[in-house]
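Deliverable D5.2: sample structural annotation.
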Amino acid sequence: MSETQRRPERAADRCGTFETIDGDLVLYDRDNANAWIQASYAIDFEDVRAYGPTE
């Protein structure tokens, strides 16, 4: 007998974002209230890969 295969959940479907009143970005997991990241700025990873981090 074969098992039903489920498609893996995509990260984009599982994550949410919002901006705080101070302008920070919060990225959170919709299924886990303890999984979130808050940042006040973003890094362009293309620049980091090409030149390394700036000091």
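Annotation notes: The chain has a mean pLDDT of 80. The CA atoms of residues 24 and 40 lie 4 Å apart.
The annotation will be released with the project's public dataset once the embargo ends.
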